[in-house]
Amino acid sequence: MNSKGKPIVIVGAGQAAASFVSRHIKLGSDTSLHLIGEEPLPPYQRPPLSKKYLMGELERERLFIRPLEWYSEQGVTTDFGTRVDKIDRDSKQIHTQSGDAIAYQKLLLCTGSSARKLPWQLGGELPGVYTLRNMADIDIMAPEFQAGRKLLIIGGGYIGLEAAAAARKLGMQVTLLEMAERILQRVAAPETSDFFRNLHSNNGVDIRESARMKQLCEVAGCVSGAEMEDGGTLQADLVLVGIGGSANSSLAEQAGLECDNGIAVNNICQTSDPEIYSAGDCTSFIRNGQRIRLESVQNATDQGDLIAQVLGGEDLQYDALPWFWSDQFDCKLQIAGLNSGYTKTVIRPGASDTSQSVWYYTDDQLIAVDAMNDPKAYAFGRKIISAGLNPSAEVISNPETDLKALTK
Amino acid sequence: MANITWKMEDGSEINADVNDGLNLMEGATSNNVPHIEGECGGCLSCATCHVFVDESWLAKTGEIDDIEDTMLEMTDVERENNSRLSCQIIASPELDGLVLFVPEP
Predict the structure, then answer these.
(1) Closest CA to B18 of B105, B103, B98
(2) A304 touches chain B (CB under 8 A)
(3) Residue A197, class by beta-carbon neighbours within 10 Å (0-12 exposed, 13-18 middle, 19+ buried)?
(4) CB of B71 less than 8 A from some CB of A
(5) DSSP assignment, residue A133?
(6) What is d(CA A19, CA B48) in angstroms, rounded to the nearest whole number?
(7) In this predicted complex, what is the ipTM?
(8) Model confidence at A408, in pLDDT bands (50, 70, 90)?
(9) What's residue A369's pLDDT?
(10) How big is the CA angle at A237 (ends A233 and A242), to the nearest 5 degrees?
(11) Which residues of A touch B70 (CB under 8 A)?
(12) SS3 of residue B52 by DSSP
């Protein structure tokens, strides 16, 4: 078989893979696709896992990005529930756990990221201790989310906060521990942390910042709470650990691909092997001169989409503006841009008490906005930043300023 | 159940039944309607499920709330009076026969 007859093989079947497949099919390419995923499911949306899916408000099929049968209808070969163990770059083949070798013309690695666990020495492996990343994680923990039970959340990032909101709505008692001085410290300005601390406190979440946990404790082989460094103890029926994620890059590393906080790709999402591309949570790429890794739907979708177009012969580079969202209680948070390296922030009051936006500047350059219950700040902020416009902090913070006019 | 027709700019059509309770972004992506992405899953953050509603159906497809109204400012193809984000239109028997036009950026 000549190289042209071989499929494009996609390892990892998440949002990046789904986006690639959709675009590839839309472009009408005659190169066949072979999609291999370790989870026994077609690509699905992850964001609702820590929200509506955890609360039992969405059935599983509604999370599927395309119905299961769509792939075969489109002529895509799929292996869901199959782990890939090895990439043989010399012979351009991948090897699955069952020993099958599949030849590729081009290879796409969309292997995603994994939730960090607490070390077992601290109780991270005890029954009743969960992490949240895959649908299966929720399927296992959801039956434990019952009214009146005590949930202890380790980590005050978005996953932890979203799960806290879901658990409170289900009537659980929720305590959230953040080791740093404030929740969201790594990802947001103090003003945004303050907003979410208030939101959660007002909704009955016991948020404890600068909280130094010593270890989880057990009773009869199950987690029973946490022992704190100050000598205090906390009781819990179950524990959710939300302390970040790491790139699933071991397959790429074993194959000798360059990795640096994820699978290193260039501005067309190509790895150090020109026949191999990578998209989504597992990649690190250069943005504004810095190598970064993002865990987001936007990044996964846009990178997957870009690779399909590049393989289709388009001359493009990856420079999409990052955006994110989170839903907690009645607050919709929408973020445009990346705030890393910001040197000042300015607050713009929203239309109501529960809405405001935080705008980030590096020196005098606008780089990002966190919009809480303020879709106008998000929508117009995203347009303003995408267009490279740079309204001053004074203009932005003035509630009389018409944001829409700034986009023109 | 509602039978929905999506009309493309080239005159082609996709016609499908969408179960009650599903939104029409989901109806579109599961029936392979091009240009309807639904990147944010229907939580009003991406504006990639933009459609034009056939004028005769506007009353039945309901009101646009403030968030949708704002997000319609972000569509790739400029909004019109009959623009909607299809994730905000929920299939029901009243929408049986609905015709949507799909903007192509």
Answers:
(1) B98
(2) no
(3) buried
(4) yes
(5) S
(6) 13
(7) 0.92
(8) confident
(9) 98
(10) 80
(11) 375-376, 379
(12) strand
